[in-house]
Amino acid sequence: MKITIPFNKPCVTGKEHVNIARAIRNGQLSGNGFFTKKCEEWLESKLNCRRVLLTHSCTAALEMAAMILNIAPGDEVIMPSFTFVSTANAFALRGAKIIFVDIRPDTMNIDEKLIAQAITPRTKAIVVVHYGGVACEMDSIMRLARRHKIFVVEDAAQGLMAKYKEGYLGTIGHIGCYSFHETKNLTCGEGGALILNSPGFIQRAEIIREKGTDRTRFLRGQVDKYTWVGLGSSYIPAELNAAFLYAQLQGARKIYRQRMMIWNLYYRELQKLSEKCISLPHIPDRCLHSAHLFYIKTKDIEERSRLIDFLKKRGILSVFHYVPLHNSRSGMRYGKFSGKDLWTTRESERILRLPLFYGLAKKDALRIGRVIKDFYGA
Predict the structure, then answer these.
(1) What's the predicted TM-score (pTM) here?
(2) Over 80: is that where the pLDDT of 98 sits?
């Protein structure tokens, strides 16, 4: 059957073309122009953080984080295995050994109680991943990091607008990373942001993003010429991407409300099934999530495969998520699992993500709920 409800549609507010036209009229298409600065200012104001640098992807932001922290061969970096490959790649590229820690089955986030046993004298950083924009238990993680004098990087790719207590995700650790990929709540096709919460990192980050030069200081009039002063790469997004993104940031509240409406609708429609057939997402107290994704957990991988096929035959595209990194060939080469894999593999094989995007009609979300209930004979 033809797919009538896709898994995702990139968000478009309708104002993107106006900004892009203005960027063209401005005569600067390379990065760090008017719209780049407007996006950074918006994020700094919204997040109440020290400095935001727009990047061309969240992958780029993570790679910059690894360089800022001087990750080097012999270092160890702790993170969950249930994450996208970029989380590990950024640190493995600098020569670090990746130490994978099991997740909590309720939130799919790193189990904060298991981090301490993974710390060694070589541990340089903990990278937390806020799965689905639901916060990790940051208080205990930050206490642990302070005790051992190690850095915390927040992979908040899915977490814009989400909070842990009163702090926005990405602003609690030393460095935060966001994604504006087309699958994210707010998008510019490909894009990201680096959140700098320690003032000592700002100048180094600017140099790294400007290909290892002090060009940013030159543009501010702080030096009379710029030159190569350190290692770096080309991490600045094109001005056209920033122009697109700024329209999304201006519409962020409306986009968030619409996504949250669909998320809550799914939860209400499937709540009775959760009493006997499936599991639904868990949002801990003191957490405001981003409504980035909605998943259910089936009994096992076989049931999940049958449900995916059942939905597809009725025109609905659903997907599973990450294959745990520690089970991959590169995961075994560049990392190791600390302790036992009690939940990571098991829970990853149960997750099924439902369509959730800006513009998904309420009637379509209700239809998806009915089809799932039909599958379970409810």
Answers:
(1) 0.96
(2) yes
